[in-house]
Amino acid sequence: MARVNIGESVSMSLSSLWANKMRTFLTLLGIIIGVLTIIAVVSIIQGLNDYVYERMSFYGANDFSVSKFSFIGTSLQEYREQLKRKNLTLDDMRLIRGRCEYCELVGASVSTSRTVKFRDQSLKDVSIRGVTHIDHLIGSVEELELGHHILKEMEDHSHPVCVIGADVAERLFPHLNPIGRWVKVGNHHFRVIGTAKAKGKILGMSQDTFVRIPITTFQKIYGSRRTISINVHTTSQEQMKLAQEEVRTILRTKRHIPFDKPDDFSFQTSDQFIQIYKSATTGIYFAMIAISSLALLVGGIVVMNIMLVSVTERINEIGIRMAVGARRIDILFQFLIEAATLSSIGGTIGIILGFILAKIISSATSLPSAVDPASIVVAIVVSASIGIFFGIYPANKASRLDPIEALRTSL
């Protein structure tokens, strides 16, 4: 008795595809577009995930910051309420530094933006960061290319010194060693004592366009009424949680906040930055998947229609196979295998084009991409499943043909 042969069915399917190239292309187009979009989106999202986890951690894994404002889920009303909060000051930082047992390092920072000049070269909208002498050890550790960091005596005596970012050094000192030279920050002059190693960009935004000056110098020039961020380093996740509770108790006690009132300050950690990123990208991700699914649905319907045409064209073949002993289940499996082969080819082409598109997007923009092996497997399984699902009806129709009627129709 004749039995379906998977290899033979696949071979026959490929022969049929090659014999009708234009029809094959139009048949596969929907699946190709759907899989291409999914693979490209998944590659970009995966690349962004890796990028964010590696480079978007403004604080170290065991570090946190305390600030006046919260950046998570802040509505206009919440922002107005937070404006009424007391500013964080250097006195708050010193109190935490003296009383927090679980805090290994306690620093502070504050920032504004100004134009920075050296001779006839200038750079606008440079981040001017007032920092303590230990801030380069907290959070995203700052490594230097040349020179040294701000020293404690420079902070204590409000020296006009600065450490500049790689972009600032490249723009203002393209052919010079910047160490020891004076730059003009706004209306004030600072002596360069160090240049930072380049960190590159995050989603197109440079991390190297900054000037770091002693926080006391910053307050002397720009005023001490600005709120600061208090930055804390700990040695472990467990210690970080204990340090946060200790800092909370210290600040609430100093500010005389009743036990039934909420904090009038906020904590920030790397995990919170990552959660914001995930919230921003999840909606885009699922929207693109939904659009891709529509393309796959259309592709599946086209596959079903083409398979119905194929059944009509091959009635003679079906009649002969049944006449020599092929069972209905054999005919059913044969057409399901052909439908799965058809859609799998479309999925494979879509995967290849999807990765090419992702690489093109990465090259043309600042968006990174990464190959996720799981997405390849899922794409192939999904495309084959679409072929099987939409191939059930034409396959079932073929298997239910009466062999006598099928042979008579072909005459």
Mean pLDDT score: 82
- How would you write the strand order of the largest sheet? 2-3-10-5-7-6
Low-confidence stretches: none
Sequence of secondary-structure elements: HHEHHEEEHEHEEEEEHEHEHHHHH
In short:
The chain is α+β, with helices and mostly antiparallel strands and 411 residues long. It contains 13 helices and 12 strands.
Features:
single chain, 411 residues, alpha+beta, 2 domains, 6-stranded mixed beta barrel, two-stranded antiparallel sheet, 13 helices, 12 strands, elongated
Describe this structure in words.
- This protein folds into two domains: 6-55 and 274-410, no CATH class; 63-268, no CATH class.
- It has helices spanning 6-19, 21-55, 76-83, 90-99, 152-156, 166-172, 215-222, 237-255, 270-313, 315-323, 328-364, 373-399, 403-410, and strands at 63-67, 105-118, 121-131, 144-147, 161-164, 182-185, 188-196, 201-202, 205-206, 210-214, 229-233, 266-268.
- A hairpin with a 2-residue loop joins strand 6 and strand 7.
- The strands form two sheets. A six-stranded mixed beta barrel has the order 2-3-10-5-7-6. Strands 8-9 form a two-stranded antiparallel ribbon.
- The model has no long low-confidence stretch (mean pLDDT 82).
- The protein contains 13 helices and twelve strands.
- The chain is of the alpha+beta class and 411 residues long.
- It is elongated.
- Helix 9 packs across helix 11 (328-364) and helix 11 (328-364) runs antiparallel to helix 12 (373-399).
